[in-house]
Batch of 2 targets.
Target 1
Amino acid sequence: MKIGVLSLQGGVIEHIKSINALGFDAVEVKTLKDIKDISGLILPGGESTAIGKILRETGMLTTLRDKVLSGLPVWGTCAGMILLAKEIESDSTTHLSVMDIKVRRNAYGRQIDSFSTEDIVKCVSDKSIPLVFIRAPFIVSVGEDVEVLHELKGNIVAAKQNNILVTSFHPELTENLEFHKYFISMCQS
Ligand code: GLN
């Protein structure tokens, strides 16, 4: 089984290392031909505006959108979450626009307000895991088909809607592989 990592901009290599550490192959997705035989796709952190622009300019946006709508498992971390959202607060632009969530970009403030913490995220483990937030968004509202997976201080930071998983934080920047395991199990089912 191969897991694709969208490799246009942002934190690609860390996701590839985490997937490899679990014994699975990871492929860099730079063009549409790279998505042919992947079982799931990770949209990494980075700058959602930049990634969205490249997706549009390269003509990948519509095909990726169709793939996700037809069931390809996808996991957006941070900027990836913004790319998947159907609504971005105070912004009329959306990108892949496939998940019934409204997100607030840079919800915790600027770069200097980035932080890490630890918490138990029940869907992945009974033990506390590290959560790293870098100019992170959070979810301000969800549609009825969206399952809230985790809240931090009352804000939604992880959610799932069928084949779509999103996290505000970056498991790939930690040694902990529980979220990657969780996504791989979505890809296997
Ligand atoms: N602030 C970025 C954005 O709005 C997301 C930051 C990240 O992915 N670490 O796209």
Target 2
Amino acid sequence: MARLVMKFGGTSVADLERIYNVARHVQREHAAGHEVAVVVSAMAGKTNELVGWVNAMPTVTGSNASIFDAREYDAIVASGEQVTSGLLAIALQSMGVDARSWQGWQIPVRTNNAHGAARIEEIDGSDIVERMGRGQVAVVAGFQGVGPDNRIATLGRGGSDTSAVALAAGVKADRCDIYTDVDGVYTTDPRVAPSAQRLDRISFEEMLEMASLGAKVLQVRSVEMAMIHGVRMFVRSSFDDPATIDSSDGANPPGTLICDEDEILEQQTVTGIAYAKDEAQISLRRVADKPGVAAAVFGPLSQAHVNVDMIVQNVSEDGSVTDMTFTVPEGDLEKALKTLDAARDDIGYEVAQSDPGMVKVSVVGIGMRSHAGVAATAFAALANKGINIRAITTSEIKISILIDADYAELAVRTLHSVYGLDKE
Ligand code: ADP
Ligand code: ASP
Ligand code: MG
């Protein structure tokens, strides 16, 4: 028999019927003799609503809209998971399953002090392990822990995935099943490309790239943590009828295993296409071409907590001035422009042009390490469709291309087909 962590996302617990369905999934594993701990998200839309309340409060009080106490933000937004953990425990009890809810601070899930985007530092799983051994199911509120200040800390959006992997590592689970509204990780977002195919397996490294380049099926940190602790993550659907699923050891339900590279027998050159919306481009024209200028641009931006992503600097024609283009999240554009304006004398640029509404489309595959020409294929395919490329960055296993948002879906589908990823 196995020790399992089962994680259910927002759409899977969106209403009472779905929570009941989740309880049936849990009961099925429990009845098969497995030791089970469950991690739940808030009901779909709940976290957005809570964040919306926090953001709206200053307009009521008339205070500065962008500044609020991050510890109170956490106290508010963590509440969605408290509700679902209690409801699922009640549903399980009604089925005769011994279950109880756990909030992050009760376990405790210890985090650092970065309220709103805290990192899990340690989970003491001993109490839960002991209770699982007696057949009790732990229903854990995801997305939350407790900081060194003894206050609730949340893990950043999508953080319940990370709660699940951390708990799996903390209780030494055999597997961490991520139940969601798709039946696995696909070659691209199936909502954008209906021709996307489910991957049976994907390496940790590729999944890390896919997630950090926009495939929000898993939170980036959850994959990072699974890789470090060797947790076997399996992405699967919560919408299958629990009565039809075989819960015995060795059963092979549909889904995607995130695993080591050497567990994948047939490695494709390109594994998937990811995209990230809401990027903005900034171009500084006629920047002095001299040592220290990049530091003068990116130092103040980093101090203002603006995350700069793609950077392109032209070679200047006459050695005196050059152009510098980079991207920032669209939501940070205003802050970035203000910061650059304040540092204008230090940097010495003529004009700052900006364009919101950009999308970064990325091609990911470990096979790129050993295959040439992958980038050229992408450029030719996009040119054929008349899609203009604004910036490019590459690494060993990915190519990212910045384009206008209007062409995002066309670009994703075009690249998906050109690398032979479309299902037959
Ligand atoms: P949950 O609420 O269960 O955490 P999410 O909404 O966070 O679920 O993640 C699941 C969604 O991720 C899917 O509905 C799908 O639209 C999206 N997604 C993006 N890229 C991919 C991909 N490559 N494979 C599968 N799903 C993807
Ligand atoms: N409820 C949180 C969110 O919406 C965490 C999660 O769902 O993983 O971001
Ligand atoms: Mg999610």
